[in-house]
Specification:
Mean pLDDT: 90
Radius of gyration: 18 Å
Strand content: 35-45%
Distance between the termini: 34 Å
Helix content: 10-25%
Shape: globular
């Protein structure tokens, strides 16, 4: 099995007030589909924990097609592993409607850690190799860094509560995206749509921690576009996560090429 597909029915929880699927839902379906895929390969979390190993996602990239209503539609998510290095596994994805039109595509980066020590573990520690399709890589993979911090527009805080935690006891990675998207007020969302986003997770956060989100605007040469960088600090000390996003007027049929977020 080289690729894996699963069909999902869009629910109200996946929608924004405009009946369109949220970026958080795209991340959710990607993670769920990849977990199902790895289960078929006997490399899922419950398989590798027996070997003192745990998968963690460290990066996620998404490129969105022009928005159309998705209320009650079915979508098909297809995933495959395109590159496996000594410390990373890159897993691509495509989300399509049942008529074949694309909703989003991109990739995520996964690493292994030892359950007992939380230290990085090599992919060779897996019970058997991860199959990969390098010819199906949408772009060359490199670890992203956001060098330009931009001009800070606002800062807001979030206190970690039990709802934010996953089964491992730390903040669910989708929570950081939810915190970042708090900036998008109704008036802004009425006029602008997200074209692409890139998320980096760097440090864990736990119950009771304070996550300070700094919203900055980055310079760009295109009129009427907004490029934002959300930097989330854990207890004012270390960066827990960063979210980069580009927004364009809703009337524009925007380009979602991979070049859009290469910085």
């Amino acid at each position: 099995m080289d690729t894996y597909s699963h069909r999902y029915s869009i629910t109200a929880a996946d929608m924004d007030t405009r009946y369109r699927m949220t970026p958080n839902a795209v991340l959710l379906y990607y993670q769920d589909c990849w977990a199902r895929f790895m289960s078929c390969l006997h490399l899922a979390a419950f398989d590798i924990v027996k070997h003192n190993l745990l998968w963690i996602i460290t990066e996620f990239n998404a490129y969105f097609e022009p928005e159309t209503a998705l209320w009650s539609d079915d979508i098909e998510v297809t995933v495959w592993n395109s590159q496996v290095s000594a410390l990373r596994c890159y897993a691509e994805y495509r989300i399509r409607r049942t008529d074949g039109t694309e909703v989003a595509h991109g990739y995520g980066c996964w690493s292994l850690i030892e359950v007992s020590s939380h230290h990085l573990a090599p992919t060779t520690a897996l019970p058997h190799p991860v199959p990969a399709l390098p010819q199906m890589a949408a772009e060359s993979h490199r670890k992203r860094r956001f060098k330009d911090k931009g001009t800070v527009l606002q800062t807001y805080e979030h206190r970690v509560n039990p709802i934010n935690l996953d089964i491992n006891g730390h903040v669910n990675n989708r929570t950081y995206l939810s915190i970042a998207m708090r900036f998008a007020e109704e008036a802004f969302m009425d006029q602008y749509a997200i074209r692409c986003m890139s998320i980096l997770w760097q440090h864990e956060s736990f119950l009771g921690d304070t996550i300070q989100c700094q919203l900055a605007i980055l310079p760009n040469d295109i009129e009427d576009e907004y490029h934002y960088l959300h930097t989330m600090l854990r207890n004012d000390t270390e960066i827990a996560a960063q979210v980069y996003s580009e927004w364009v007027p809703r009337t524009i049929h925007h380009d979602v090429s991979a070049e859009a977020v290469r910085k």
